Every structure is written in structure tokens, then in C-alpha cells.
From TrEMBL:
InterPro entries, per the entry: NCBP2, NCBP2_RRM, Nucleotide-bd_a/b_plait_sf, RBD_domain_sf, RRM_dom
Record Pfam families: RRM_1 (PF00076)
Limits of the RRM domain: 40-118
Keywords: mRNA processing, mRNA splicing, Nucleus, RNA-binding
One biological process term in Gene Ontology: histone mRNA metabolic process
Function: Component of the cap-binding complex (CBC), which binds co-transcriptionally to the 5' cap of pre-mRNAs and is involved in various processes such as pre-mRNA splicing, translation regulation, nonsense-mediated mRNA decay, RNA-mediated gene silencing (RNAi) by microRNAs (miRNAs) and mRNA export. The CBC complex is involved in mRNA export from the nucleus, leading to the recruitment of the mRNA export machinery to the 5' end of mRNA and to mRNA export in a 5' to 3' direction through the nuclear pore.
Chain's gene name: NCBP2
Protein's UniProt name: Nuclear cap-binding protein subunit 2
Subunit structure: Component of the nuclear cap-binding complex (CBC), a heterodimer composed of ncbp1/cbp80 and ncbp2/cbp20 that interacts with m7GpppG-capped RNA.
Taxonomy, superkingdom: Eukaryota
Matching PANTHER family: 20 KD NUCLEAR CAP BINDING PROTEIN, NUCLEAR CAP-BINDING PROTEIN SUBUNIT 2
SUPFAM superfamilies: RNA-binding domain, RBD
Molecular function in Gene Ontology: mRNA binding; RNA 7-methylguanosine cap binding; RNA cap binding; snRNA binding
GO CC terms, sorted: ciliary basal body; cytosol; nuclear cap binding complex; nucleoplasm
Amino acid sequence: MSGGLLKALRSDSYVELSQYRDQHFRGDNEEQEKLLKKSCTLYVGNLSFYTTEEQIYELFSKSGDIKKIIMGLDKMKKTACGFCFVEYYSRADAENAMRYINGTRLDDRIIRTDWDAGFKEGRQYGRGRSGGQVRDEYRQDYDAGRGGYGKLAQNHDVENGLGLKRELEDGMFNSHRRFLQEIPVLAVSHFFPQIVLLRLKPSQ
């Protein structure tokens, strides 16, 4: 049997490093890769905003003893925003989580795990402009477990709604103004948007 085939048979694709690298890592790619290869910390993504730390602990403790869990937070609201970090005491237990928990369901969502170079203070916060994760800024579909529509889509709807409200109000005002110009015997109280019409006595 050739050496290449033996290597392929012995490989464990479930625990190999992915292509993802943290662009905010303070160091070069070589240093980050070294840390990833010996890390006991996993990044866990695609969580529901409603999944609790207790649920995560219950699931991930099946592969080994957990040292700590750090919940991902919206940096504005300080509420859960769909990711976390799970740190094990040993690399072997973290590898088991990669093998057996990655791709399973939690709160009816398929979660994904990946190696993390190690938690640093500040990384628990979302990196999106609105405070959550970047993926939730641009999402166009409705996801009940992650706050509904994406933040940009929500903002667009709000802006459109306010614009429509302004258009309606302007239209109502202009309509009343034209009406008042045509009938001079009426006066208007300018407490917009509630327009009070007062009938004046006819001039002598």
C-alpha cells in the first residue's frame, strides 16, 4: 500500500482546519495557524438568538469536559446574536465535538463548528454595523430564529414606511390647502396634521 493512500486513510477530515481565517487576528497567518492546530476552543455558528448557554453546555458536554462557554453578544443591545465560543480542557475533546456535533441540530437549526485560535476579550461582540453579526446585516430572507429579516432590509422597510407616511401626510395637507384656497369663507387652524375647519360669517 502506497504512503499516499495510507495518509489518506489516516486523515480525519472532520478535525482538519478549514480555509477560514480571522481577519481581525493580531498576528500573521503562520502564527494563527499554529494556534489553530493546538487550540481547544471552537467557534459555534448559526445559533438561534433564543438558544441558551445551558442548552449549548448540555449538547457540547457530550464530547468532553467544558472549561467555559462565551456567548456572542450584540454589541449595542448586549443580547445573544447567534454564535458562541466553546473551550474544552483538552484538544481531544474538542476534536470529538468537531466530529460528532458539527452539523447537528440545536433548537431546530443546523449548527456549525470551526476551530478558533483562542478567545480574546472583545471577540464576544458582533462585528456588524448594527451590533450583530455581519451575516445578519445583509440577509434578505426571513429567519425567525435570528431576528426576522436582515438589519439592512428592516431599515429599508422602515425608511420606506416613513417615506410613505410623509407622502400621505403631505398629500392630505396639500389637498386641504387646495380646498381652502377654493372656498375663501373657511379658515384653517394650522396645527398639522389635525386640521380644524372654522366657518366664518359671510362678509356684509
